[in-house]
Amino acid sequence: MAIPPSSALLLTRDQVLRALRQLDQNGLQMPLSTVYDLVYRGRRYAPRQVAQLAYRLATGQPEAKWPLRAGAPTNQALEALDFTIATKRPTLENSPLLDGDVAAQQQAEDLYTGSPRETAPPKKAPVKPVAAETNEATAPAEAHEPPATYERSAPMPYTPEMARAELFLADEELTAARAALARRRNLLLQGPPGTGKTYLARRLAWLVQGSTDTARIELVQFHPSYSYEDFVQGFRPDSQGGFRLRDGLLVEFCRRAAQEPEQPYFLLIDELNRGNVARIFGELLLLLEADKRGPTHAVRLPYAPAGSPPFFVPENVFVIGTMNLADRSLAPLDYALRRRFAFVRLRPEFGKPLRALLAAHGVPAALTQLLTTRLLDLNQAIADDPELGPDFCVGHSYFCQPPTNPTEALEWLRLILEQEIGPLLDDYWLDQPAKAAAQKKKLLAGL
Questions:
Q1: Rounded to 5 degrees, what are φ and ψ at 23?
Q2: Among residues 18, 16, 74, 24, which one has the least CA distance to residue 44?
Q3: 196: left (phi over 0), alpha (psi -120 to 50) or beta
Q4: pLDDT in tens, 314-349
Q5: pLDDT, tens digit, 9 for 90 and up, residues 123-180
Q6: Where is the composition biased (Low complexity) (predicted)?
Q7: Beta-carbon contacts of residue 64 (< 8 Å; ≥ 6 apart)
Q8: Who wins on pLDDT, 138 or 394?
Q9: Structural domains of the chain in order of their starting residue, each with its CATH number
Q10: Pick the residue with more confidence: 395 or 69?
């Protein structure tokens, strides 16, 4: 069955990297190109052969044919995934292969390969041979991409019993949150600071997929500088000092999800209301709806070039956002966005779950009683304040990492109240310093 050229756009950078690794393992058995090379970590590969192998790995079809022609179509597809395409040999300055920029192309090639040229350097930019100043036995320097700083840990099974043991939620609350996510596919966790919203978001994803595998989970945090161009699509600077059309996190994530329709994918948006949500989301306001998923409801993105396939959100994509309601600088969400989400409210929990956690870490019962009593009293004072209210209460996550040595528990609690809760109260009652001082004095009495 013929595969349409538009499906080539589903190729991802990870798949191309897999193809490069396989070529390295096979000793570069594929033929090299005659004009262009894909340059990666100082080595050269034939662009179309790399794309061909990556395409077969992506489709799972050993005989699948890469649908794009060699040259510019294939090169542009690989460059869109942030790979460098260099000219293999010098060409005439007026050749359309280089768009008249021979010197810039040669400079870029030397930068990525670190290999001296056999031909003389261009007259406009003479370069002194490196061998004249260094030992001839010294290998030329090579430019490398920075190595990965970490590796994903091996996924472990994650069960409802494990979730109950580490989440401060009643069984019915956890069941309701999972039902809302399954029904709407979009869930917003909202509540005061320190109530474990991001912590819960990740574990809801683990619960649905049944493991701690992070390969299908993407986390992004919104902020005032985040834009539609970052999230969906737009023109952004490239390494050559120009601008290039780039797909944002959402488009790349949805492409990955479309390749595994039987597997759930989770987009976690932390601090969702800290950005200009309506502007960041764009077409997503329509495509987020549970009944507007899939290619039937695809739309054309405003930056997309003519002839490019329309964009859609796959049915296996779930969005979980978090909102801090206590930040006075944030505007409330508009109603168009609210209609796309189900909402779950989280509250500070200073009852049995926190007591059990502290007891398991050896925190003395008397100290646990003092902690919970004083925080409950503080939250009542905050909730009763007409200028604050329940959204400004202090959450339990401040106290979820007790010391390993029980003898340090008293100092641990004092420092949290003094260094973390105290400054928060100063900010809450900025215009009433006496009230803030009185509440801090109550918290720290006897400590």
A1: -65, -40
A2: 24
A3: left
A4: 999 999 999 988 775 555 667 778 888 999 999 999
A5: 444 444 444 444 444 444 555 555 555 666 788 999 999 999 899 999 999 999 999 9
A6: 127-151
A7: 3, 55, 56
A8: 394
A9: 5-132 (no CATH), 178-345 (3.40.50.300), 352-444 (no CATH)
A10: 395
Length of the chain: 447
Phi/psi of residue 40, nearest 5 degrees:
-145, 120
Cα(420)–Cα(407) distance, integer angstroms? 21
**Cα separation, 11 vs 398, whole angstroms:** 43
Mean pLDDT of the chain, nearest integer = 82
Q: Which amino acid is at 183?
A: R
The Cα 325–Cα 33 span in angstroms is 57
Query: Residue 425 contacts by C-beta under 8 Å, 6 or more apart in sequence?
Result: 378, 436, 439, 440
Q: Please tell me the distance from the alpha carbon of residue 200 to that of residue 80, in angstroms, as a whole number.
A: 35
| Residue 207: DSSP 8-state | H
d(CA 174, CA 155): 22
State residue 395 phi and psi, 5-degree precision: -85, 170
CA dist., res. 47 & res. 438, Å (int): 69
Please report, for residues 183, 248, 297, 319, the alpha-carbon distance to residue 290 in angstroms, rounded to integers and kept in the order given.
Answer: 8, 22, 11, 11
> In 271-313, which ranges are E strands?
none
When pLDDT is averaged across residues 258-287 and rounded to a whole number, the result is 90
